[in-house]
Amino acid sequence: MNRNSVVEPSEIALDEGIFLVKLARKAIETYITNGVIIDPPKDTSEKLLRPGMAFVTIGSYSRNRELRGCIGFLQPITPLVKTVIHAAIAAATEDPRFPPLSRNELGDIVIEVSVLSTPKPIRNIDEIAVGKHGLLIYRGWYSGTLLPQVPVEYCWNRETFLAESCLKAGFDPDCWLDKKTRIYVYEARIFYEKSPLGEITEKNLEDEFKVRCKWLLD
Asked: Which PANTHER family match (predicted)?
């Protein structure tokens, strides 16, 4: 495999997902405690040194995993391992919706890493699958995205997912009906801590959507 080819989510094994979640936590803890940005570990696999896209989400465990920060990168500019490091630190310190994470919170957070595929344009909204796709909305110089797990968490249908993505981009909720709006979809593999410093596993969004949002599918 070309070392410059983008890492796609389908290539990530569970042990590599676990590695990335542990790395994200270490990046956050080291930066919050010492103000130091860690380097990729020496045992990082060649695959994770290829360019990749990822988001890191931080939740407050004692508040039912309430969002505490989420930032990522949708361009494969840096090696995936560095993308995760920088996204983790940014989610902890630069998300404008929240104050920077404090040292006292480190034992109460849970970490989630979403490894993203290359966004692809769609021509028809019927191509959007809730529980599978994230959305990226573009119009002019402005854009916004919502990860695949967001509509599953709130049991949104396709139209609500589109409307919320438009709002995230700063547009009216019906912006997806405008021919000037470009809509892209992407997929993700999502690895997360079940509890702070606890077991790390992978989310199955399609199954979760069927169970959590059964009423929507009936």
From this structure: AMME SYNDROME CANDIDATE GENE 1 PROTEIN, AMMECR1 HOMOLOG
